Amino acid sequence: MSLRPARASTCALTLTLSVALVSASACSSSAGSKSASAAVLKVATTADVTTWDPVKSFSTEVFYLANVYEPLLWKNPAGSAEPYRPALATSWESSPDKLTWTFHLRTGVTFHDGEPLTAAAVKASVEAAADHGGASFIWAPLKTVETPDEQTVVMKLSHAAPMDLIASSMYGAWIVSPKALAAAKADPTYFDSGKDGGTGPYTIGEYTSGQRVVLKNYASYWDGWKKDSYTTVVNTITPESVVQQQMLTSGQADLASSLPLENVDQLRNDERFTVSTCKTASDYVGFFNTTRKPLDDVRVRQALSYAIPYEDIITVGAHGFGTQSRGPVPQGVFPYSDSTPQYHQDLAKAKELLAAAGYPGGGGLTLNVTYAAENQAQARFTPLIKDAFAKIGVTANVQALLFNQQWDRAKADPKSAQDIFLLLYWPTYSDAGSDNLSSLFHSSDKPSFNLSYWKDSTYDELLDAAGADTATDNAKAMSEYGQALNRLYDQAPGFFLYDVANPLVVPKTVKGVSCNQDYSSNYFFHDLTRAGA
Question: Which of 66, 75, 279, 308 is 20 to 30 A from residue 292's alpha carbon, by CA?
Fold first, then answer.
């Protein structure tokens, strides 16, 4: 995801979200105005909808779904007194071996269709997610779901796993109305028009594909409503950041989800705002195609890793909103460690390694590099990689492709695929060991996101051991993951650019804005209130 001045008026702006979210409370000639229209929040967003099915969803529609559906638990921001807070479960516990997890459900909760939240509903939702969910892999440890009574859910696992973490996932852990699940099973197109079956604070009031999503408050929401809450959220799907900026500055939008990072500094000296930086769980990764020459030689991969201008990439690509990665585990996400080694630009070392591999002066090497045309940060920093490679005698043919085209090419046949694939990635839930490290680099005959096509039994064994130890012996798992990260550094099947940070610019007239790294791609409208309403 990415980001994007505001006119001098009585409108208050706020910049937050996955890259920046600028919010203007209702404009009026009086700062204390309480017009009825102030309860309507107008949002310009890039978030399109690939599916409204909350089970199958695994894309940008999460921007809306996270306000319509709820999981059993929410993960708290780093540094909180408790790691989780109740959502649809008010309490939970596990057996000492972490093979049995029991969740006690909140009473008085109803789905938007009026049906009560019960253990049977949770069981049906979890089983659907495990069977055919867009993120079904997170439920791999699940063996059975039992319902000893209407408010108790018992999950039994085939191997120890942190089910509290899995149950708080942004993808694949929504609890859905049994009626909606049954309707979708009978008719796979059931959700297509914008129907929903959630328990969350908002319902889907209106949907026009590729254009508009209107969320309406659910009057019977279990957590209630404040007098200064936004009861309606009108989302206009606007891919062009320039248009979003025009909508924002003209008052057509109160929120814009994609603003130029270079414009954030304009708000820093504006007394109407507070500006901070929010860590995210996203990072930029590059894959070397290890299946063919010259990238099947670790020395060539190491040489290219030494050639990359990491600091310049953060300055130019991220406009300073990022920190150099230590492997594919973002800072603040398990199992990140400050001791994980990282490459720094060293052109002399790069040339030395190329010569040792039989390519003195670059040896006339030419590599094909692809990146997602939709990603503005990649468009800014990829030319820096091309220029750096040229300094060691390596030619980079850079091609911008729509992500789906890039993805299809990479998945078709490694032998004819790109040499270097650039990717923005984030974990499905806050465990980059079971997700990033595994999804991106674990051996597989049919790689998912492993677009280096790298196979390494030592790495695989470390990952498998760490995954089994995560729930029962965290320190041991950290040690094993640390060894796996060192292996990635040594063998260099990919390179790791920077962990993404987002600017958070909050108007002093808006309350309730906070940063949670685990859900940094989302905004929770129910938390946002209007000061002075």
Answer: 308
